[in-house]
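Quick review question:
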């Protein structure tokens, strides 16, 4: 085990202390276990595979004891501590083995079911594009877009794009992000991802065809961080891109946009940001809407310029990008950077924490669900390496390499996938900026001779800091640049160097292992690695041949690469697994050949650069042989150097951006689509005939009257020509009546509540959304009446409108309201079927065409927003098959528990009745079942668990509210949402965001179904109950509601 050299002294101490521990003096714990041999136990249970390096500190304290009795007691306690840890680790490993076995069976079953539904097995045409056929950039080598390399080709490509004016939105929420003087390494949230997203935004902003890039992040005005992180906007100065510099327009270029959300005046880690994600989404949506309008006025001819893509970075931003993509109906990209399931696997393998403990610390289940949602919503997932696809993304329910290949082949052949889809995985390595790099061809001797005559160019200080270690500093330098971490495998490198005499005689070894002041002040893991390295140097007598400086600046790293290159040295990365290997690219840029691990990203880098050798990191002799071969063979060294320098541009930011933009060009354009003369972002105070007529014309084009309130568009239903003509005639008559009504109304008092303008939402100052699920219908009516009465004055003046948000169908709503004497027209809109349908109140009943029609108009534009990746009939068939498998045995007979509810189903909602909620899968398991079969949907149970709704993945009641803002300009911050103490399984969505929330507490709340207890993560991980926008009442009376509204500043007392 690397780093456990202290075990030898520990073992020796146990052996020395053995005779002193006899039956009469040993502890009760030992006597109870009979004959106990600490030595045998230690060898069998610890040395043979248990690495608990934090025990090192305990051992140090034990070894320092002067009293043999106290020393023996401490050693005895350590033995039992290790025994307990080892037992816990084995238990966790066993549980995870069972879990992984079950997961493999589920995936295989899901793959078989998906294949059966698609009516054929993997055909010959679908066997192409196997993993080995993929290039380093994730595309099939057959028919891929040719790489642009020559200057003429680059100019031609630029000319084709220069007329385009793209708006791109990047999102990276956590950490400290700014354009200059980035504080990389300040904390775990401010690392490589921060540098990556800033440089990506800067590079994209300099590309031809890209007009504006917004990098959205969190605004932080905390006393413990620099003031610059509180600036709302920061323009990123363009890089030195001579080939791509173009004129920047009035609002063009790349910008960091900081959105305020979460605790004010406090910088918090990413694990604590989850409850505030919805608040960020609402703030980002407002910014994008405003910027789209501004860009429309500048470059869009008066029409909004919508983002061509929204790109989320890391799980939190992926969750946000998915919601924004759904609200705006624009394509989404996702880059995971590091993945939650992979981290969970690694932590479980360590055996120190259970799954529950890991989730408590890292909120890992919320992170994994966010990554699954990002897979649901993304057109493309950008990865750095093939290893990330095959070993990390393969762990997720929403992605399977084999099924994705099959679906892609079917799409190419034009064969139906029956509602199934998986995002495309594309390998685009991170870019680098190489313009500042100057490669010298001179060797060490020439450099020294030149410096004798030119003392005005002194060597960088770091050179002398390194060379002072060497007896002969002119020998080629083997350079390793990595943390003192066991995973980096530095001790194996030192052993390989120390045991190969020819290599030692030919080269020096330089180890840059971070910065340190004293070994005792380092973390225990790093201290153990460094101590092991120093012991190996002493063991092999490597003094004068190995350098290990204590300090270096980040700005000095290029000088270190230059020194190694001038000595005709080699760069090595011997890590056991390297996810990407950015240092390999940096080394190649300075002309250094490489030796790298064959596990992970270096394989892809080597395939492109062809500038070195790959080795097994566990094979010490192979590492020594590869290093010796490169150092001793000057022709091979020169060839590898030349290949690296020739191909390094393939990892430049311009090259990254060209591949990136080429991917965007393949997307099917998606953006908000409706026909109207102006977007209506502002709430108009006028009620002119023109406004009303314009609205009626809008509605006549985009809203279709639903005669029965259900299945407005029934797939597969064939209507007769006579029926279609009658429907069209009724619709035309309705529009004519509405137009006449508007003309009549315009001659009356324009402030009248009976105005025929559709919809009235854009005229309201506030919108009250009633979304209470945890009550009976009778109590719901009482709550509605209390809310109406609490806002009576504002309701009469027309400044407050009302929306009912529910899982009920529109016909059920109409029946409940009218039977209790509440006119349906008292509401401006109805969010029905758990957010899959949106209706508006039509004019008063005397304007209806016949008594059989319901006074509602359905918004088809909303359906165009949510239909993305809707499985339709293919999803319904899968759900019906699943429902048929859920049965309850009653004697010799079986009763089906889940029944399809055709009456309550609609085009975008598959409804089922659940007879016994205790026998059905919880939401997370049913959602997983669908994802494994490449079906993306939003699964919801009602509050009592008796109803199951399956709707489009990006549809929800909270998303419907965002649509009302996008469509009608109704400010989200002016909405007040009323909920109960619990609700349907989408309850959490109603609690977050910039809108106000009033939680109605009291005995009228019914207890939720046990299905709600089977959550993947606790509710507190996603809801900020301490937010000033959330108020709880002690009842649902008019006074209770008025008091809550006053607390929120909505209504004056």
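Suggested answer, residue by residue:
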């Amino acid at each position: 085990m690397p780093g456990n050299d202290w075990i030898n002294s520990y073992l020796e101490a146990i052996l020395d202390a053995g005779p002193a521990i006899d039956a009469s003096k040993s502890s009760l714990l030992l006597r109870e276990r009979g004959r106990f041999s600490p030595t045998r136990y230690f060898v069998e249970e610890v040395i043979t595979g248990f690495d608990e390096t934090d025990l090192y500190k305990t051992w140090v304290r034990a070894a320092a004891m002067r009293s043999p009795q106290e020393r023996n007691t401490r050693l005895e306690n350590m033995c039992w501590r290790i025994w307990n840890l080892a037992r816990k680790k084995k238990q966790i490993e066993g549980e995870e083995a069972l879990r992984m076995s079950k997961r493999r069976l589920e995936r295989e079953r899901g793959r078989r079911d998906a294949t059966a539904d698609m009516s054929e097995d993997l055909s010959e045409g679908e066997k192409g594009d196997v993993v080995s056929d993929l290039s380093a950039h994730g595309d099939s080598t057959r028919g891929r877009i040719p790489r642009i390399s020559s200057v003429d080709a680059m100019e031609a490509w630029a000319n084709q794009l220069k007329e385009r004016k793209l708006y791109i939105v990047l999102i990276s929420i956590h950490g400290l992000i700014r354009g200059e003087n980035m504080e990389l390494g300040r904390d775990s949230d401010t690392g490589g991802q921060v540098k990556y997203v800033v440089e990506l935004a800067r590079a994209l902003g300099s590309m031809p065809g890209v007009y504006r890039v917004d990098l959205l992040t969190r605004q932080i005005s905390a006393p413990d961080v620099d003031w610059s992180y509180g600036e709302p906007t920061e323009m990123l100065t363009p890089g030195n891109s001579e080939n791509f510099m173009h004129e920047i327009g009035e609002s063009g270029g790349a910008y960091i946009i900081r959105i305020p959300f979460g605790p004010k005046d406090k910088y918090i880690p990413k694990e604590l940001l989850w409850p505030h994600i919805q608040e960020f989404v609402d703030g980002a949506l407002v910014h994008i809407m405003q910027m789209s309008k501004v860009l429309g006025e500048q470059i869009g001819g008066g029409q909004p310029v919508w983002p061509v893509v929204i790109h989320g970075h890391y799980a939190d931003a992926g969750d946000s990008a998915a919601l924004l993509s759904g609200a705006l109906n624009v394509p989404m990209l996702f880059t995971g950077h590091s993945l939650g399931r992979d981290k969970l696997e690694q932590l479980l393998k360590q055996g120190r924490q259970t799954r529950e403990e890991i989730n408590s610390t890292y909120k890992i289940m919320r992170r994994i669900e966010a990554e699954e949602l990002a897979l649901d919503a993304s057109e493309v997932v950008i990865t750095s390496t093939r290893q990330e696809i095959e070993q990390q993304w393969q762990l997720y329910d929403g992605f399977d390499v084999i099924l994705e290949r099959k679906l892609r082949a079917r799409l190419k052949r034009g064969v139906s996938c029956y509602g199934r889809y998986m995002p495309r995985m594309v390998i685009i390595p991170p870019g680098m900026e190489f313009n500042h790099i100057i490669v010298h061809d001179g060797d060490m001797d020439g450099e020294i001779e030149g410096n004798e005559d030119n003392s005005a160019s002194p060597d960088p200080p770091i050179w002398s800091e390194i060379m002072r270690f060497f007896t002969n500093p002119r020998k080629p330098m083997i350079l390793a640049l990595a943390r003192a971490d066991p995973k980096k495998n530095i001790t194996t490198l030192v052993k390989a160097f120390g045991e190969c005499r020819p290599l030692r005689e030919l080269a020096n070894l330089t180890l840059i292992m971070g910065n340190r002041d004293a070994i005792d002040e380092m973390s225990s893991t790093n201290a153990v690695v460094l101590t092991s390295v120093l012991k190996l140097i002493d063991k092999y007598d490597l003094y004068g041949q190995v350098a290990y400086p204590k300090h270096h600046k980040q700005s000095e790293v290029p000088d270190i690469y230059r020194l190694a290159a001038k000595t005709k040295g080699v760069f090595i990365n011997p890590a056991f697994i390297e996810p990407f290997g950015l240092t390999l690219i940096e080394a190649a840029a300075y002309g250094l050949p490489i030796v790298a691990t064959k596990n992970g990203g270096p394989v892809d880098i080597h395939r492109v650069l062809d500038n070195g050798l790959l080795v097994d990191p566990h094979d010490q002799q192979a590492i020594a042989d590869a290093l010796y071969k490169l150092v001793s063979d000057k022709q091979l060294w020169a060839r590898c150097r030349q290949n690296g320098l020739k191909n390094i541009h393939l990892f430049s930011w311009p090259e990254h951006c060209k591949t990136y933009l080429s991917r965007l060009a393949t997307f099917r354009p998606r953006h908000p689509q409706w026909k109207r003369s102006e977007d209506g972002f502002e709430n108009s105070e006028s009620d002119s005939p023109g406004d009303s007529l314009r609205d009626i014309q809008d509605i006549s084009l985009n809203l279709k009257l639903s005669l029965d309130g259900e299945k407005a568009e029934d797939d597969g239903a064939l209507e007769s020509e006579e029926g279609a003509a009658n429907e069209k005639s009724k619709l035309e008559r309705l529009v004519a009546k509405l137009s006449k009504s508007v003309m009549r109304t315009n001659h009356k008092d324009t402030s009248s509540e009976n105005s025929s303008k559709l919809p009235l939402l854009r005229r309201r100052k506030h919108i009250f959304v009633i979304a209470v699920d945890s009550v009976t219908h009778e109590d719901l009516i009482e709550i509605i009446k209390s809310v109406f009465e609490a806002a009576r004055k504002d309701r009469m003046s027309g400044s407050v409108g009302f929306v009912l948000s529910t899982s009920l169908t529109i016909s059920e709503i109409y029946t409940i309201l009218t039977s209790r004497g509440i006119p349906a027209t008292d509401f401006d809109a109805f969010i029905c079927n758990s957010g899959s349908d949106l209706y508006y109140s039509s004019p008063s009943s005397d304007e209806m065409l016949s008594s059989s029609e319901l006074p509602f108009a359905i918004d088809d534009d909303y359906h165009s927003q949510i239909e993305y990746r809707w499985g339709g009939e293919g999803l319904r068939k899968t759900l019906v098959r699943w429902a048929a498998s859920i049965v309850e045995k009653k004697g010799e007979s079986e009763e089906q528990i889940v029944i399809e509810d055709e009456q309550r189903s609609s085009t975008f909602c598959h409804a089922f009745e659940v007879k016994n909620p205790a026998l059905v899968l919880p939401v997370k398991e049913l959602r997983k079942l669908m994802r494994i079969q490449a079906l993306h949907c939003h699964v919801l149970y009602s509050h009592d668990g008796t109803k199951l709704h399956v709707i489009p993945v990006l549809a929800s009641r909270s998303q419907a509210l965002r649509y009302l803002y996008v469509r009608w300009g109704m400010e989200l911050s002016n909405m007040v949402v009323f909920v109960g103490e619990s609700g349907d399984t989408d309850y959490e969505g109603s609690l977050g965001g910039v809108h106000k929330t009033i939680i109605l507490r009291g005995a009228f709340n019914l207890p939720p179904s046990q299905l709600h207890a089977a959550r993947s993560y606790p509710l507190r991980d996603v809801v900020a109950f301490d937010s000033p926008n959330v108020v709880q009442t002690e009842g649902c009376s008019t006074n209770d509601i008025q008091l809550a509204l006053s607390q929120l500043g909505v209504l004056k007392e």
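Why it works: The chain is about 40% helix and 15% strand. The two ends are 71 Å apart (CA to CA).
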